[in-house]
Amino acid sequence: MKELDLLKKDWKKNSDSFEQISEKEIYKMIHKKSSSIVKWILIISILEVSFWTITNYYSNIDDMIQKINHPEIILYMQVLMCFNYAVTLVFIYFFYKNYKTISTTVSTKLLMGSILRTRKTVQYYVWYNLGIVVVSCVVSFFIGYVYNPDMEFIRQKLAANGIAMLFSIGAFVLLTLILLGLFWCIYRLLYGTLLRRLYSNYKELKKIDF
Questions:
Q1: What pLDDT, on a 0 to 100 scale, did the predictor assign at position 17?
Q2: Do residues 109 and 93 touch, judged by C-beta distance below 8 A?
Q3: For the chain, what are the domain ranges?
């Protein structure tokens, strides 16, 4: 925001007759930056969906599910996958809508409102994805442990040893937390950085509007 600081310093030095022009220049700069940030949020979300789609296509998850030989599990996984894609596409639509709104708005108050809505949408999106990570871990562990025929020997060993069972559950919980923390760090790096810049723009607009 160095450019904004320079503009504001210049604004204070000028006479009152140039005050309105300076406000417009600052608004244009904030508007352009905000539009660019939201565009990157949209691009990153699309790239994220594309990445997971390609990863699922080349993974052997379907072969593992077929090996389990439980049609109800296959149906459940397909429903869960379709639901996840549907929700993700809805979020991407909202990102696109927010981008178009911010790009075309000419009112300071409307731009401020759009920035806040975009931040909330991204926050909901991140929390939803983190929730999906936990659900996916739990479902994968349950299906792999209960229905995978290759796990029969391990199931028998764990059933006969309570300590080993507790250790396995603890290891699963720890692995889930590590995976959740990893995704949280990635989302914080990608979306968190953009949201902080976007909120910085909001605070600058608030100084102009009030």
A1: 45
A2: no
A3: 2-209
pTM over 0.90: no
| Cα angle 195, 201, 203; round to 5 | 105
Alpha-carbon gap, residue 136 to 154, rounded angstroms: 22
CA terminus-to-terminus distance, the chain: 19
Two tokens, residue 19: 């005050």
Task: Identify the sign of the CA torsion 58, 61, 65, 68.
Answer: positive
- Report the distance separating Cα 129 and Cα 137, nearest Å: 12
Task: Specify the residue for token string 């508007």.
Answer: 31
Sign of CA dihedral 169, 170, 172, 177: positive
For the chain (210 residues), the mean pLDDT of every run of 10, in chain order, is 56 49 75 91 92 77 65 79 92 93 84 91 94 88 74 68 75 89 92 91 79
Distance CA 190, CA 184 (A): 10
DSSP letters for 126-190: HHHHHHHHHHHHHHHHHHHHHT-GGGHHHHHHHHH-HHHHHHHHHHHHHHHHHHHHHHHHHHIII
**Identity (one letter) of the amino acid at 22?**
S
Go through 111-146 and write b for each residue having 16 or more CB atoms within 10 A of its CB, e for each that does not: bbebbeebbebbeebbeebeebbeeebeeebebeee
